[in-house]
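Self-study notes.
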Amino acid sequence: MIWNYGLTLSVIPKSTYLRGKFLKGFLAILLLMGTYSTALAHAVQVAYVVLPNGFIRVYIEHWHGNQTIESLAHNGMSVTTTVGTESITQQLNPNGAVNDTQWDNLPGAGSNIVILKRGPSANLYQDWAYYDFPPAMCNVPLIITLNGGVSVVLSQETNQFWPLTISGTFSDTAPPSITPPTPPTATVLCGVSGSVVNFSATAFDNCTSNPAIVYSKNPGSFFPIGTTMVTASSTDDNGNRSQVSFPVTVSTNDLTPPVLNLPAIIVSNNDAGLCGAKVTYNTLATDNCSSVSITQLSGLPSGAIFPVGITTNTFKATDASGNWAEASFEIIVKDAEAPQVSALASISGSCSVNIVKAPTATDKCEGPIIGKTTDKLVFTEQGTFTINWTFADSKGNTSTAIQKIIVKDTESPILPTLPNIVGVCSATAPVAVATDRCRGTIEGSTTDPLTYSSPGVHIINWKFDDGQGNISTAKQYVILKDTTVPKVETRDVVLHLNDNGTATLTEDQINNGSSDNCKITAYWLDKKYFDTSNIGMNTVTFGVTDANGNYASKTATVTVLNKSSALSSYPNPFSDQATVSLTLMTDEENINLDLYDSNGAKVKRIYAGALKANKNSFFSLDGSDLKGGIYFLRLTTSKELVNFKVVVSK
């Protein structure tokens, strides 16, 4: 049970406590000034609050930093508790620790926290230990005396801080607890209006012994048939009141089910335009004891549209005692309406008519009804014919209709899909043909030429005549256009800078027999002029444009050599053997001529030693042991470094 308490605060003198005299009906706060004195004093503030469950929580601020339950296990307090006339003194460990928290934000404190004592260092550290003391018995005085800390952690900060006493008497504010009876019931015979019902509830109170119970309708009263809610209330000696409610039920001992009176079988034709009929009927039920409620379990209600076929309507009758009976009857709706057919449209054909899909009529119950006939369905002669159609549903209801068939050639030849005739310099179109449903294939005629040799787009106007006055026309396009790009062929070139340090590249030097299926009209290079900044290998793009604007390009390597030395190799590309040509511009005592691969790794040395200036020197380059790819000849002298690209083709 959770206790509720009333609380009044007061301060009483120390002598009153020592004589054991207490004030009843309030909680007095007694601050006793003790005689303890210690050099290491660390309790700086004390507060308390009464928790909702009646426990008294006492908070003690200290300056020993953050603590836990474990670290406070041997750093508690000496506490004396007095309940009535019995006292006990114990060394108690705190129930909890709170760190870095202001006094008005402590757990459980709220707005009801009371400050009992503050020392000079209060609120500086905000580290707390707290105790939870259980409430005393009803109206019994309780005194809690904090004698002092058992260690420096909770010892006093200043003299006369401890002891500190909380005393008071807790009053009862909790109402009695009422246990209602198991919901009482009674059964009476049919025709009786109610019954006397007895019952009893119990009440318990924490202070008042056997509190009295008052009922909104007393036990032994007469209760009518049905359910009556009864309220039981109880008030203790301190004016605390509680109440509960419970049902009292009186039922009739009726075991006879009601009797249903339903129609016999109802038969009806469908309503016009509906696959069903509106049917009304009445249902009745009687009972020997009480009124009866009727519930439809299946079927359709009276006045509804019942579909063609059999609908079973099932009803349930229930009396006030829960007795029930079920019964059923059938409503049969017959389909008596013939299929509805609209006027059939005439069918015309040019050469023939072949009926592959029969017309349909609409039946409200069965949906589309496909027509049937004994007349022929294929007509190949010119003229007008009739077909007699019959439409019958599955119930034997039939309708008839006549359809007219007209055979007459009124169709023009079917236009062919004529492809574009595409040529480069000239093109000739074949004679176009069309298809006619009656004559078959028809050749087209035109006054336009069929052969063209000038560039551009030309139109041939075709005419297709089936001989029956039906003519179709179509256009065909002849397009002369060169769409083939030129074939570009290039060769690598070695340029030597002149005395001014420049060199010029021409298209003829790069062109290696480029061609076009028609005519080349322009050549171009993306770079023609070179100087000392281009010494070495350079990639240039050589472009070719034909008369129709088709363009293609290809790259080539232009090796620019300084006037000082000339290094080359031929043939280039080569497969097995090549000749390296070298001309130095100054005498050299020690040169190196090496071959490197495209990754910069030296493959072999071709020559090492002295050479005279302005003398053409030739060296054999054996490529039989080389893989296909790009390599570089590298000349290293005391004054320069010259590279030349060679290609090994395997």
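Second protein, same conventions, sequence then structure:
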Amino acid sequence: MVVYYNAKIIGYVSILVAVACTAVISTVFNLRFSTYSEIAQVGEMYLSLLGIILLPHLSIVEDTDYIHETVYPRRFRHVLSVLYRLLFTAALLWFLIMSVVMLAKLQGSEFPWLEITGGVWISAMGLGAAGLTAATFSRNIAAAYITGFLYYVLELFTKGKYTGDLYLFSLLRGQFEQGKWGMAGIIAVVLAVNLVYVWRKS
């Protein structure tokens, strides 16, 4: 019941937009016989944006739906609700990315599907976590989406000049680099900080 409620409260609009974007990407790009670099570009440049669509609002759903008065007094249950939303959305994000990757595989492409899926998923979670953090601390959804997109633009145009081994789109360099694991660790810490903040402010 709790899982169903939180899946429902996340909002159908963002989920539908993410699904629609995934369908468009699958249709617009020719995935037949894609090379590693080609599928990495589709994933890192386009599929990673799904993180900005799905994650930023998860900690302030109650604010936007005007129901925070009924849930904030229950400190532990509220932070648990945010955790459920994060887990559900992370799983959905993995599924959407994997669906495009597997479609390419079914069309004759040769590349390590798990490496591509995992790498793109980490990138998407990184963008989403940036937006989520902005939302959690500012309570402003516009600031959240802007933060996630600015992070995307920074990495897109600087190509890791300032982030080095933690370059968000490192799959574009032709392989799954160790920096991706470092990025995954940072994302986990950032999400944990968000949850602690929600718990303390509830």
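Instructor comment on the second fold: Residues 2-201 form one domain.
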